[in-house]
Amino acid sequence: MNKLIISIDGPAGSGKQRIAKYISKKYNLYHLDSGILYRRLASIIIKKKINYKDNKSIQIFLSSIDFLSARSHLKLRNEKISKIASKIAIIYEVRKFINANQKAIVKKKLKSYKGCAVDGRDIGSKVFKNANIKLFIRVNSEIRAKRRHKQLIEQGEKSIYAQILKEINLRDKTDKNRLQSPLVVPRGAVIIDNSKKFLHTKTLIDQALHKIR
Ligand code: DC
After folding, report:
1. To test ligand 1's pocket by mutation, which of 71, 121, 180 has the most ligand atoms within 8 angstroms of CB?
2. Tell me: the pLDDT tens digits for 166-184?
3. Which of 2, 129, 143, 183 is spaced 20 to 30 Å from 110 by Cα?
4. Under CATH, what is the fold of the domain 4-212?
5. Would you kindly state where each structural domain of the chain is located, as residue ranges?
6. What is the pTM (predicted TM-score) of this model?
7. In the chain, pLDDT over 70 holds for what percent of residues?
8. How far apart are CA 83 and CA 176, in angstroms?
């Protein structure tokens, strides 16, 4: 039986995670949020006070661990971790480690699931170049900042819209301009506009995925 891989890439706050959840639920696939691995690594680096700007320290640290859990946790979504995750994501050794980690998770999950929906920045362009279906999620940065701001307020965190917009623009810049696996629209990807209500997005996704059935 052929196993299915769906890649869902897009910038910070584009809603790719919600889309990946929707797809995995609808088609009974395992959902891997690759950003969580960068966030988990960033959180350990902060806790252990490792100097992420020093390649040697990062390499020593990476050789001391062999697997990262992809389990999601709200604590991993705060702004400090987001910032450090984006910074460590430019490091070649970090990407190599996390890519291998992702492949191991997917390989394991494909034993019990008929497929995986993986969301991130470089899934269709790099990690799973042979994904059966590639999606790229687009939303302008103002809408993403508004959504993020609302979410932080609802979580009881302090948030200033202008600051969030600035951080999102900065993160986009880092993600798009880094040398290692920059954020790009993968070749052959279907672009999904997630600026409107989710109901609208769902229709676009259903249209893009009709061939699964
Ligand atoms: O999707 P996210 O915001 O949870 O991702 C956190 C950070 O991890 C983001 O700044 C970029 C990085 N990332 C990446 O470089 N490649 C991925 N496949 C997923 C995330």
Report:
1. 121
2. 999 998 998 899 888 889 9
3. 183
4. Rossmann fold (3.40.50)
5. 4-212
6. 0.92
7. 98
8. 15
